Amino acid sequence: MKSLLSSSSASSSPSSSSLMRKTRLSPYLFALLSFIVFVSVLYGEDLACIFGQQLQVPPSPTRPGPRTGELTVPSVSSPNVERDKSRTAGAPPAGGATDEEAVNGILGSSDQRSSSGAGGRGPVPFAIGRGEEGCDVFSGKWVRDESARPMYEESECPYIQPQLTCQEHGRPDRDYQHWRWQPHSCSLPRFNATLMLESLRGKRMMYVGDSLNRGQYVSMICLLHSLIPEGSKSMETFDSLTVFTAKDYNATIEFYWAPFLLESNSDNAVIHRVTDRLVRKGSINKHGKHWKGVDILVFNTYLWWMSGVTVKILKGSFEDEVKDVEVLSTDDAYRMGMKSLVRWVQRNMDPKKNRVFFTSMSPTHGNSEEWGGESGGNCYNQTTPIEDLNYWGSDSRKSIMRVISEAFSKSKVPITFLNITQLSNYRRDAHTMIYKKQWSPLTPEQLANPVSYADCVHWCLPGLQDTWNELLFAKLFYP
Ligand SMILES: *[C@@H]1O[C@H](CO)[C@@H](O)[C@H](O)[C@H]1NC(C)=O
Ligand SMILES: *[C@@H]1O[C@H](CO)[C@@H](O)[C@H](O)[C@H]1NC(C)=O
Ligand SMILES: *[C@@H]1O[C@H](CO)[C@@H](O)[C@H](O)[C@H]1NC(C)=O
Ligand SMILES: *[C@@H]1O[C@H](CO)[C@@H](O)[C@H](O)[C@H]1NC(C)=O
């Protein structure tokens, strides 16, 4: 455990320090190195984050109940290997119709479906109005709003994990809390926590993905929990699954850890930082069986695919002695993952009752040269957003954006895309930086150079991720 934790600091490993020397020669390598450092932070963070939760809720493989059990076993048998390809795997939507029949009945033929908003579709579940015609809520700018932001105080939300409580960990400024997202051609509906909670009555909402999605999950709970009296709410973690319960509403808001969505050798909720990462093709039901019956699903997956220019894909099972491994380009591997997700959604989600969201890539800010800052810097010490509206960080891969939009355009069950990449790219100031719980002691070298250990991947709460949920709220009720 110790070595896993300390290995999250890439700058202390010999291979990265030799890379560091080369970076003086090559800005490309520098960018790559910064990215590796921040991805390392990401893995270390996830480990620490879940590890922290495990300290409160000790793992108990024998705990009874539907939400535990095999989740603790890293790699279960193979009966569901082929399920992903079988049309009988999931419950067919509404009334036993096939995906196609059910969807065409509501949406009309795919030609009739409008590509923007809800135009041309039947009633959208949860909708109470319509988004303004022609307004892209993801295109806009940050405006300072001391009176309306933040939407809650860090100290008022006990659910924020210590990796994201920046004030508690000494962040000197609060500037990052006071920005409101203003779309260029309309206004966002005001986040109404009462409406959100009432709509979840008797329902389940679940976020599925990596630690960035966990941040958005916690933000949602912080936005809602003050409406629920003490004693009527709880939060528990069972291995990969964290469940917030609003008892009086018979509602749960859940987070399910699956950094690739598909089965991988990084799925263990505690020890998931492995050096030789493998993602198993066609395995989405491995985790997907735990998402069935959920009313609102919010997926993300990105950074874990990005550790190099290729991804290793396992074609058989993790139990095979001789493993059949194919090396794919990152785009092709990610496309394979998106296709599996779309198939799962088509089989398991009912467009008359359910909503599916997908949050786009969360950007990182590992190299201040990208926004015209000094060389050798990163998000550390940044207190204002980037003002250049055309700014786009190099690690938010546009090719991945294209892969996502291609895959989703073919989905017969609508997947609402939360395109938060551009608006988050401006927010070099919103990361946790060094103001978070450190799980391993910092070396004197690190302490002398905060840039070296600043986390420019994750985001302080309250902060940017509250806006992601405001956008989710907008798209849920005013599609
Ligand atoms: C919030 O939603 C509730 C429930 O739908 C509604 O009664 C209330 O008027 C809304 N509040 C605002 C400020 O719109
Ligand atoms: C509580 O919600 C679940 C769905 O999450 C539903 O199946 C169940 O019927 C609800 N129970 C009551 C008493 O409303
Ligand atoms: C961070 O900001 C402080 C105060 O403005 C300054 O003293 C310090 O040199 C800055 N550090 C870096 C690494 O830019
Ligand atoms: C998301 O937004 C960015 C910039 O605002 C845009 O370039 C991209 O095409 C959008 N992606 C999708 C899938 O709509």
What characteristics describe this protein?
binds 2-acetamido-2-deoxy-beta-D-glucopyranose; three-stranded mixed beta sheet; seven-stranded mixed beta sheet; 479 residues; 12 helices; alpha/beta; 14 strands; disordered N terminus; 28% helix; 2 domains
Largest sheet: 7 strands, mixed
Poorly predicted regions are: 1-120
Tally of strands: 14
| Spatial gap, N to C terminus | 45 Å
Q: So how many helices?
A: 12
Structural class: alpha/beta
Count of separate structural domains? 2
Cofactors, ions and other ligands in the entry: 2-acetamido-2-deoxy-beta-D-glucopyranose
In quaternary terms, these chains amount to: single chain
Strand numbers in spatial order across the main sheet: 4-5-6-3-8-11-12
Fraction of residues in helix? 25-40%
Order of helices and strands: HHHHEEHEHEEEEHEEEHEHEHEHEH
* Shape descriptor: globular
Strand content: 5-15%
What is the typical, i.e. mean, pLDDT? 81
> Gyration radius, to the nearest Å?
22 Å
If you had to describe this structure to a student in words, what would you say it looks like?
The chain folds into two domains: 2-50, no CATH class; 98-477, no CATH class. Helices cover 28% and strands 14% of the residues. It is built from twelve helices and 14 strands. It has helices at residues 2-6, 14-23, 27-56, 99-107, 193-199, 211-224, 284-288, 330-348, 398-409, 421-425, 444-448, 464-477, and strands at 140-144, 179-183, 204-209, 233-238, 241-246, 251-257, 279-280, 296-299, 310-314, 325-329, 355-359, 416-418, 431-433, 455-459. A hairpin with a 4-residue loop joins strand 5 and strand 6 (251-257). The model is unreliable at 1-120 (pLDDT under 50). It binds 2-acetamido-2-deoxy-beta-D-glucopyranose (4 copies). One 2-acetamido-2-deoxy-beta-D-glucopyranose binds next to helix 5.
